[in-house]
Design a protein that fits this description.
Layout: H1 2-14, H2 17-75
Length: 76
Protein backbone atom coordinates (compact mmCIF):
# COMPACT_ATOMS: atom_id res chain seq x y z
CA UNK A 1 0.00 0.00 0.00
CA UNK A 2 2.74 2.59 0.71
CA UNK A 3 4.24 1.92 -2.76
CA UNK A 4 0.96 2.71 -4.54
CA UNK A 5 0.53 5.84 -2.42
CA UNK A 6 4.01 7.07 -3.29
CA UNK A 7 3.39 6.33 -6.99
CA UNK A 8 0.12 8.24 -7.05
CA UNK A 9 1.59 11.24 -5.21
CA UNK A 10 4.61 11.29 -7.52
CA UNK A 11 2.29 11.18 -10.55
CA UNK A 12 0.16 13.98 -9.13
CA UNK A 13 3.18 16.14 -8.33
CA UNK A 14 4.88 15.45 -11.66
CA UNK A 15 1.96 15.77 -14.09
CA UNK A 16 0.39 19.19 -13.35
CA UNK A 17 3.49 21.39 -13.80
CA UNK A 18 4.21 20.04 -17.30
CA UNK A 19 0.96 20.98 -19.10
CA UNK A 20 0.74 24.37 -17.38
CA UNK A 21 4.33 25.21 -18.28
CA UNK A 22 3.78 24.07 -21.87
CA UNK A 23 0.66 26.21 -22.25
CA UNK A 24 2.44 29.16 -20.66
CA UNK A 25 5.34 28.74 -23.08
CA UNK A 26 3.13 28.18 -26.15
CA UNK A 27 0.70 31.07 -25.68
CA UNK A 28 3.22 33.96 -25.79
CA UNK A 29 4.92 32.42 -28.83
CA UNK A 30 1.59 32.20 -30.67
CA UNK A 31 0.67 35.75 -29.68
CA UNK A 32 4.07 37.14 -30.67
CA UNK A 33 4.28 35.25 -33.98
CA UNK A 34 0.72 35.94 -35.12
CA UNK A 35 1.16 39.73 -35.00
CA UNK A 36 4.15 39.91 -37.40
CA UNK A 37 2.51 37.43 -39.77
CA UNK A 38 -0.64 39.59 -39.89
CA UNK A 39 1.39 42.76 -40.44
CA UNK A 40 3.44 41.04 -43.15
CA UNK A 41 0.24 39.92 -44.87
CA UNK A 42 -1.14 43.46 -44.66
CA UNK A 43 2.03 44.93 -46.19
CA UNK A 44 2.00 42.26 -48.91
CA UNK A 45 -1.65 43.03 -49.70
CA UNK A 46 -0.83 46.75 -49.85
CA UNK A 47 2.06 46.13 -52.25
CA UNK A 48 -0.14 43.88 -54.41
CA UNK A 49 -2.83 46.58 -54.51
CA UNK A 50 -0.19 49.16 -55.48
CA UNK A 51 0.98 46.87 -58.28
CA UNK A 52 -2.61 46.43 -59.49
CA UNK A 53 -3.09 50.21 -59.43
CA UNK A 54 0.04 50.76 -61.53
CA UNK A 55 -1.01 48.03 -63.99
CA UNK A 56 -4.47 49.58 -64.31
CA UNK A 57 -2.89 52.99 -64.90
CA UNK A 58 -0.74 51.51 -67.68
CA UNK A 59 -3.77 49.79 -69.25
CA UNK A 60 -5.76 53.00 -69.06
CA UNK A 61 -2.92 54.96 -70.68
CA UNK A 62 -2.63 52.37 -73.46
CA UNK A 63 -6.41 52.40 -74.01
CA UNK A 64 -6.41 56.20 -74.19
CA UNK A 65 -3.58 56.15 -76.73
CA UNK A 66 -5.40 53.52 -78.83
CA UNK A 67 -8.61 55.58 -78.72
CA UNK A 68 -6.67 58.69 -79.72
CA UNK A 69 -5.01 56.82 -82.62
CA UNK A 70 -8.31 55.44 -83.93
CA UNK A 71 -9.94 58.87 -83.71
CA UNK A 72 -6.90 60.39 -85.40
CA UNK A 73 -7.05 57.78 -88.19
CA UNK A 74 -10.79 58.35 -88.70
CA UNK A 75 -10.35 62.11 -88.94
CA UNK A 76 -7.55 61.92 -91.49
Amino acid sequence: QPISMSLSTSLITKSPPLPSSITLVKQPIIRQSSIPIQSMMVTQIHSILDNIDSVLDKIQAQANSVIRRSAFNENY
